């Protein structure tokens, strides 16, 4: 048995505490605030068994031109935001080339496909079933070309990874989600993913389970002086009152938003922004609200200010899980990018196995950062 300190009580840190505890270690989680109140609070709440490929940076000249001109809503940036993480962004772009992206997807897909199996027992033990829906989520497609591309993606994911999906016509979508009030071309129902009506609440209930099982959560802030190249993709959300919310989260990627029914209201969550400081009136959120109002009959905003947090993305797109070289007692577990809420309990098992004498996963080791 080892005495282990875990830094940070987000989904990743709390899952790590639980996985180490299950192997008999004596674990304390050190948190500067409250468990589950940062990025693990503000996400879209998807536990995504279908997200078998990490987000690649769009590299076609047309897409790069749009991003450079600040058009579109998928990626926004400011010169200061881009310059402060230029090296990591360049490596991320390099790893977005098809061959490198395919390599990363092999490992990523293996991790993602375990996510509901890992969350399931934790949800049950934490008594958090009341905030989990096991009905998947819906991605809408507004044009025939997008629908055709979606069909190919669904077929590929089914063949290569066993992902379940149902393609629906616009009419089938309206029957399933009567809250949608316009006609769209169609949709993909990613049926084996789960979603959560209170992501911060789920982390808090996992933290309570950790404490019930003998773990400690203490407040302390300390820096270890490690410098890690990362791409920080800022996202925003706001909740809106809605009388009859949809039954599933609705991803409208054509407008770069995910609309999730949450306890506080309909949560509009945005795509990526490379900025060191948050904007007061983010254009992606404004655009997302416009798209949401077109789809649904929604009311006023619940909060005056948007929430904001940053997705921790590694330049090679894979999380960092394992022992830090030259530091026999320091272990890394971070960098889950767009899917840390999904993956926390999956990679926690890998880390806890390695810390307890197992082999770990070679492709996730922190040593690769030095080579990077
Ligand atoms: C808009 C948006 C939508 C998203 N949607 C999804 C989704 O649908 N599904 C999904 O799987 N993922 C989603 N993500 C990504 C996901 O939220 C993150 O990958 C995940 O929350 C990261 O978890 P974490 O535990 O690493 O970080 P955090 O949740 O940020 O936790 C880190 C913790 O460390 C603490 N801390 C930091 N520094 C110190 C210190 N020096 N000392 C002590 N404590 C410290 C912080 O207070 C915090 O509690 C989304 C992200 C965004 C921004």
Task: Describe the fold and architecture.
37% of the residues lie in helices and 22% in strands. It contains 13 helices and 18 strands. It has helices at residues 11-22, 39-42, 61-68, 79-83, 86-94, 98-112, 115-126, 144-161, 170-176, 199-212, 283-295, 340-355, 367-371; strands spanning 3-7, 26-31, 46-47, 75-77, 132-133, 137-141, 165-169, 186-190, 194-196, 216-219, 231-240, 250-252, 257-262, 265-270, 272-274, 307-313, 320-323, 331-334. The strands form 5 sheets. The protein has an 8-stranded mixed sheet, with helices on both faces. The chain has a 3-stranded parallel sheet with strand order 1-2-10, with helices on one face. It has a 3-stranded antiparallel sheet with strand order 3-9-5. The mean pLDDT is 95. It has a domain at 1-51 and 98-131 and 196-227 and 314-372: 3-Layer(bba) Sandwich (FAD/NAD(P)-binding domain). The chain starts with a strand and ends with a helix. It is an alpha+beta fold. Flavin-adenine dinucleotide (FAD) binds at residues 7-13, 30-33, 38-40, 42-46, 48, 221, 235, 237, 269-270, 309, 311-312, 334, 336-342.
């Amino acid at each position: 048995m080892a005495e282990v300190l875990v830094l940070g009580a987000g989904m990743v840190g709390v899952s790590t505490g639980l996985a180490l505890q299950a192997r008999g270690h004596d674990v304390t989680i050190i948190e500067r605030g409250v468990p589950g109140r940062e990025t693990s609070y503000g996400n879209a709440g998807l536990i995504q068994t279908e997200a078998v490929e990490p987000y690649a940076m769009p590299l076609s000249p047309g897409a790069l031109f749009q991003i450079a001109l600040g058009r579109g809503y998928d990626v926004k940036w400011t010169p200061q935001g881009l310059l402060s993480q230029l090296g990591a962004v360049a490596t991320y772009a390099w790893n977005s080339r098809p061959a490198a992206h395919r390599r990363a997807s092999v490992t990523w897909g293996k991790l993602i496909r375990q996510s509901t199996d890992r969350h399931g027992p934790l949800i049950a033990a934490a008594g958090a079933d009341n905030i989990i829906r096991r009905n998947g989520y819906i991605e809408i497609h507004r044009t025939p070309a997008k629908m055709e591309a979606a069909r190919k993606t669904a077929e590929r994911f089914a063949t290569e990874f066993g992902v379940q999906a149902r393609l629906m016509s616009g009419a089938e979508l309206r029957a399933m989600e009567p809250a949608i009030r316009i006609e769209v071309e169609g949709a993909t129902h990613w049926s084996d993913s789960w979603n959560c009506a209170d992501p911060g609440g789920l982390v808090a209930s996992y933290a309570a389970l950790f404490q019930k099982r003998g773990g400690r959560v203490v407040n302390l802030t300390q820096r270890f002086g490690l410098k890690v190249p990362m791409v920080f993709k800022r996202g925003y959300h706001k909740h809106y009152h809605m009388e009859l919310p949809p039954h599933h989260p609705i991803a409208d990627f054509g407008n770069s938003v995910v609309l999730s029914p949450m306890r506080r209201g309909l949560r509009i969550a945005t795509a990526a922004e490379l900025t060191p400081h948050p904007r007061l009136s983010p254009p992606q959120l404004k655009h997302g609200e416009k798209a949401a109002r077109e789809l649904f009959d929604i009311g006023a905003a619940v909060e005056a200010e948007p929430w904001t947090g940053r997705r921790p993305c590694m330049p090679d797109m894979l999380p960092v899980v394992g022992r830090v070289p030259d530091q026999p007692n320091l272990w890394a577990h971070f960098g889950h990018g767009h899917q840390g809420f999904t993956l926390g309990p999956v990679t926690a098992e890998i880390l806890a196995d390695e810390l307890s004498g197992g082999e770990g996963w070679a492709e996730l080791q922190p040593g690769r950062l030095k080579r990077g």
